[in-house]
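Today's session is about reading a structure prediction critically. Students often jump straight to the picture, but the first step is always the sequence itself: look for stretches that repeat, for charged clusters, for runs of hydrophobic residues. Only then move on to the predicted structure, which in these notes is written as discrete structure tokens rather than atom positions. Here is the chain we will use throughout the hour.
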Amino acid sequence: MLLVFYLFPFGQMKVIEHSEQVLRMALISKNTQLVKLYENLESREKCLLNEAFQPDSVLFRPITLHSESDWISSHPEPTQDFEQFYNDPYRSRPTSQKSTIYVQPIGSFGDTKVSTEDYMKWLKDYCEAFYYGLSVKILEPVPVSHTGCAFRVNEYTCNLQIHAGDLLKYLKKKKPEDAFCIVGITMIDLYPRASWNFVFGQASLTEGMGIFSFARYDSDFYSASYKGRLKRVKKLPSADYSVFDGYYTPAINSMLLLRSCKTLTHEIGHIFGLHHCQWLQCVMQGSNHLEESDRRPLDLCPICLRKLQSAIGFHIVERYQALLGWMDEDDSGMDAEFRNEAKMGLLKPVEAFKEYREWVLKCLDVLQK
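Below is the predicted structure for this chain, in token form.
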């Protein structure tokens, strides 16, 4: 496989450029059976997917690396093409008996302007559009104390953290019989073991479980004024969860909603068996830090889109229409009074999704020609 790195003369940014032939094989395969599967797709779907190996495509662009700390630079991994995904005997597959994605909220979410119920509905509906064809159910939110997890104050950032491994054990007990997977989400920071500073999330792919925190997606998390910082505490009583009562959680604004949607769909993608993408800009790219995560697009490249389509069986145009509908549903027919309410944070804040909406429209334009 050919990888070409272009180093820009006035900076450290690199572009990962795969050849047309490599991208074509990653998408379609040389396997006769898989080639036939591709040929049987709707012509309009193939027209969109073929954008993967069009050098002048405005929809799917090469991956850029901005520093040595970016994921691909610091975490060398083998690539995963469609054939490898399709033939993976260990990946989880939805079935008619196990076709529901369950989301378990842990702790409190957001400020008084946006209720936990509203925020969860936004995430649920987005996830159902992204994984079009599967149902998503939000479980009743539980306080941290119900999980019985260990917790601590981070000695460097002075914020509360809860133990990711303990939360996975809790989720395993709560996983419903009809679940394709169960994922826990929280606004409280996570740590996997005492020696680690933090972790964004942790998953057990074979058991269809994951726990993910949105705490560090608050724009103020790394600032000195972050409201979640506590006074230094040497040791917290192991069974006293009262420290979480009234603990700070960030306001749900448009950027936090976008980051939450991106993280949730990325991590569930791993449970489907999608590896980190190294083909084109894609939501399944790995990320080491918030700046790199923000550079990732919200949606899948054609290679990862074909993987997901083969796992679920949706029509691509219907999936994009559902995603567009999610972004537009609170805006259609809205009068001036309700627009003011939206600005106050009472309706779904989708301002940060503007670029994504324009991209989806371009994809639909290709699909509907």
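Discussion point for the tutorial: The radius of gyration is 21 Å.
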